[in-house]
Specification:
225 residues; Helicase, Ruva Protein, domain 3; 4-stranded parallel β-sheet; 53% helix; alpha/beta; Dna Topoisomerase Vi A Subunit, Chain: A, domain 2
């Protein structure tokens, strides 16, 4: 058999293998769950399938606990009207989280973070006395998603309404996306004529705020410029 014939056979075998893989699917109920899990951040099809098969092994009581927890998440958790931080209201109809409602917090400081875990990391340092705003995404996502553009509108309205804000701290992650987000925000916030600062040095380039130790994060806050 000639070389070109062997190559042709190999090519057809590869095509058939790919075709068979496409045809091989899990039962619809399992596949549906995999598809849902694969929409989670940083979760691919392989990890999503592990989640699905992990749940198959759980007993009915454990599955009920999970579904109840997910249901309660939507029922009980609200987004703060001012900072968009998820919180669980102790009183019905309450729209502002405990931090935004705290009269002891300095109203002139507004710290903008990318996500909830960054907010929590800064709050744990107990060195920041001001208020927050959770952006929810990076600049790349904000430019694409209409939902997250709403957050920018909320941020702009907040700065317009609350004249006591004198300093805006852009506490974005020291990553390429974080730096792009900071530049994007600077451009949007410039017309408000507020003092705009960034976290000081000490945070490792390419790192995430949520993984920084409290001492490093405290120094970065104190050394902002």
């Amino acid at each position: 058999m000639k070389e070109w014939q062997l190559l042709e056979i190999s090519k057809k075998a590869t095509q058939n293998l790919k075709k068979n893989k496409k045809q091989m699917n899990y039962p619809p109920t399992i596949q549906k769950l995999i598809d849902i899990f694969s929409k989670f951040p940083t979760v691919g099809q392989r990890t999503a399938s592990r989640f699905a098969f992990y749940l198959i092994k759980k007993n009915e009581k454990e599955i009920e606990e999970l579904t109840l927890a997910i249901s309660n998440l939507k029922k009980n958790i609200k987004l703060c009207r001012l900072c968009l931080n998820p919180f669980e209201p102790l009183e019905k109809g309450k729209e502002i989280c405990s931090i935004c409602a705290n009269p002891a917090r300095k109203k002139n400081l507004l710290c903008i973070v990318e996500k909830e875990s960054d907010f929590l990391a800064i709050e744990k340092t107990k060195k920041y006395p001001g208020l927050y705003f959770i952006l929810g995404e990076t600049a790349l996502s904000l430019k694409k998603a209409n939902v997250d553009k709403e957050r920018i509108k909320i941020l702009e309205e907040r700065i317009k309404k609350y004249h006591e804000i004198t300093e805006i701290i852009l506490a974005t992650n020291p990553t390429t996306e974080g730096q792009a987000t900071a530049l994007y925000l600077e451009r949007i916030l410039k017309p408000f004529n507020k003092k705009i600062t960034h976290l000081g040095r000490g945070l490792p380039t390419g790192g995430e705020l949520e993984y920084a130790d409290e001492e490093t994060l405290s120094s970065a806050l104190e050394g902002r410029k």
